[in-house]
Amino acid sequence: MSLLEVRNATKSFGSLVAVRDVSLSVRQGELRAIIGPNGAGKTTFFNLISGFFPPTSGTVTFDGKDVTALSVTKRVQLGMARTFQITEIFPELTVHENVRIGAEVAAGYRLRPWISRTEAEKVERTIEETLALIGLSAKANRLVGELAHGDQRAAEIAMALTLRPKLLLLDEPTAGMGDQETYEITQLIRRLHRDSNFTIVLIEHDMRVVFHLADHITVLDQGKLLAEGTPQEIGANEAVQAAYLGKAA
Amino acid sequence: MSGEQARKLTVLVAIWALLLLAPYWMPPLGGYTALGTRVLVLGLAAMSVNFLLGFTGVLSFGHAAWFGLGAYGCGLMLKFIALSTPLGLIAGTVLGGVMGGLLGALIVRRRGVYFAMVTIAFGQVFYYIAFQWSSLTGGDDGLRPFSRQPLHLGFATVDILSDATAFYYFVLFCFALAVAIMGFILRSPFGRTMLAIRENERRARFLGIPVERHIWIAFTLSCFFMAYAGSLYALVNNFADPRGLHYSQSGDFVIMAVMGGMRSFWGPLLGAAVFVVLQDYLSSVTINWMSFVGLLFVLVVLFFPRGLLGVIRRKSEA
Amino acid sequence: MTQLLLFNVTNGLIIGAFYVLMALGLSLILNLSNVINFAHGGFLVIGGYIAYTITPYVGFWGALLIAPPLTAVIGLAVERVLIRPLYGRDPLYSLLLTFGLAFIIEDGTRFIWGAQGKPVTIPAFLAQPLSYEFFFITGYRLFMVAVVLFTVALLFLLLRYTRLGIRIRAGTLDLETVSALGVNVRALRSLNFAVGIYLAGLSGVLAAGQLGLEPTMGAGVLMPSFIAIIVGGVGSLTGTLLGGLLIGVASGLAAVFLPAASEAIMYVLMAVVLLIRPRGLLGEEGMMT
Predict the structure, then answer these.
(1) Which of A46, A92, A111 should we substitute to test contact with B (largest number of B Cβ atoms within 10 Å)?
(2) What is the pTM of this model?
(3) N or C: where does chain A have the smaller number of CB atoms within 10 Å of the terminal CB?
C-alpha cells in the first residue's frame, strides 16, 4: 500500500495554474525525487502535500487518511515532516535547543508547564540520538544562526527527524551548497533512507544527487506531470530531455 | 557551561540582594522607598509585556488596557465590595486577565503591525469605558476614594497602608511570586514553544505546534500578569485612573522593555527603573518633559535597539 | 428631528472625510513601508500651525496651497533621517520611534505656539450658512468636503495611472519583485511617505479652518484613522475610504441617539467587523497574516 497518494491535484492562483492535475503515489520506504525545470510547480506541489495551502481540486491521502482539508499542524501530528528550500530554523537558539523543541513537541509535552525528570531524560536521549544520527553532536551548544549553511540544513533535518516522521519531505536539500556540503548532505539522506528506513520525497536540482539517491523520479514541467519512472527510465526519456534542453536553449 | 551557570547565579543573587535592601540604599542616593515600589510594579508590567514581546515575538501595543483593568478591578473591589487587599488583587487580576483572554481569542490570527494596530484600538475601548462610565469609575477624575488595607496574617497584622517600608516588602513579595511563575513558565516545554514561535513561526508550525493556540495562551498569561501588576499599581496609588489604560501608557511599557533589553528576562525591570527615575526627575525640572520622553524613545530606537542589557552583554562578549 | 438627524449625518460625513484623509495617508505608509506612523496626527498639527503662521501673509488660499507641501517636506526629512534606517527591522522600532516623535511634535507645538487654541480665519463668504433652514451647512463645510473629494479622486487617479502610483501599488503587493525589476525602492518609499504626510498636512489646514488649532488635536484623530483602516481592511485603500466614511457617519448618528456613545460606536463597529469578517471589509486574505 502506498504511504502517500496524491490524486489529480490542481492549484491555481487567480488565472495562473501552478499545478495541473498531478497524481503521485509513494510507497512505504521509497525515496522519491521530484525534478523539473524552474517554474515547473515543484514547490507548489510540495506545499499541497504538506498542507501549506489546500489544492484547488484533487485529494491528498496520507497513511490511509484523507488529509486534503487538514491543517499543517494536523498533518505533522500524523507523521509528515518537511524542510524548506530556504532553511527554516530557530537562529538565536543552540542546536541542542532547536532539536529539543522538536523532541518535546513530538513527545506530546508542548503544553506542559513542567516535565518530570524521567521525561526530561527521555527527551535528552532523543536529542542525543538525533544529533548523533545527523552528525551534529559536537556542535550541540553552538547557536544555529552562526553555523555554516550545510550544518544549518542538517539541523533543520534533525528537527524534522525528532518528530519520527513516517514521511520526510525535503525541498532542495542541497540548494546553495558547495560540492563538499552537497556530498555530505547526500550521504546523510542516503543513510536516513538505507539505514533508518525513512520514506523520503525530495525536490532536487542537482542531477548527480537525484540519480545517486532516488528509487523513483517524478518529472514536472509547467505544472504538469511529464514523466515518472526509475532513474534509468527517466535518463532515457526523450520528453524529459527535451524539456530540460528546451529550457536551456 | 558551569561557568555560565555560576555567572547567572551571581547575577540573580545580586538582583535579589539589591531589591531586598532597596529601602536601605535608596534614600542615601536621593531616592525614596515609594519610588522603589513604583519601579517594582511598573517593572513587573514591563516584564509582562516582554513575556509576549520578547519571548513570543508578538507585539501588543494595547497592554495598558489590562494593566488599567487590573487597577480598576482592584479599586472597585476595595471601594464597593470588600475591604481586603488580597481580594482586591484577585479581583483586578481576574478582571484584566479574563478580558484580555477573551479579546485575544478574537485577534490572535492577526500578525505583525496589524496585530499591533488591533491591540491599540481595542485597548482604547476600555479607556473610553473607564472615561465615560463616571458613575462607576469616577470618569476623568479617576476612581477614589479607596485604600489598601492592613494585612491580617492571623498571628500578626502588617500595616502596609502607612508604613512605606512594610508596603515595599509586600509589593516585593507579590513581585517575586509573579516573577517566579513567569520564569518557571519560560523554562517549561510550553515556554520553549513560545521561543520557537518568536524565532520562526513557520518552523514552529511545521514541528506540529498549533501556533495560534500557543500565541493565545501566551497572550492570556501575559494579560493576567499585566492585570496583576495593575492591581498592585492601584494599591500603590490608592487610586485608579483612565490614563492607566491609554495607549500612551502601553507605549511606556514597551519602551521600558526595549530600553532594558527585550531578549533578557530582567531587562524590562532595568528599563522600568531608568524610565521611572528619569520621568520623576524630568517632570520636576521641566514642563517640557514630554519632549524628553519622546526623545528617549527616538534615541533608544536609533542607538540602543538591543537595550541596555543587550549592549552590556555584547561588550562582555567582545 | 429630521433636521437634527440631517445635521448629525452631515456632521458625520464631514468628520468621516477628515478621517479618510488621515487614514489614507497612514494606509499608504503602512502598506508600502510596514510602518505604523504614530506621528501622523503630529503632522496634521504641523500642517495646521504652518497654515496659521502664514495666513497673515499669504491668506487662507495661499496657506491651503503652501502648508501641505511644506508639511510633506518636513515629513520627507523625518523619513530620510529617522525612519529610513529602520526599514527591514522589526516594525516595533518604527512604531516606537514615531510614537516618541508624536510626543515631541505635540510638546514642540505647545512650546512654539502655546497651549491655547488658535483660530484660523477663513474667507468670509465661506463662513456663511448656505440657507437659513439648514444653518449648519456652511460654505466652508461644503468646501471642505469638496476638497477632500477632489484630493481623494486625484490620489486614486495617481495610483492607477501614473508610473509612481503603479509602482506604489505593485510595491505594496510584492516589494521584492518590484525591487528586482530595478525600481529604486528607497526613493519610492520616500515619495510615498511624502504623499501620506501631504494628506496629513492638508487635513491640518482644513481642520484648522473648521475647529481651530490645539497641540493635542493630532492624538484625537489618530485612533479613528486606525479604526478606519482596520474596519476597511488593511491593505486596501478603497477599504480605508469606506471605513473612514462609515465610522464618521456612525458616530454622527450615535450623537443623535446616544451622545455618550458617539466615540465608543467606532470601537463597537470595529469589533463587529472583526468578528464577522476578520480581515476587514475589503481586506486581502494575504494581508492578514
Answers:
(1) A111
(2) 0.91
(3) C
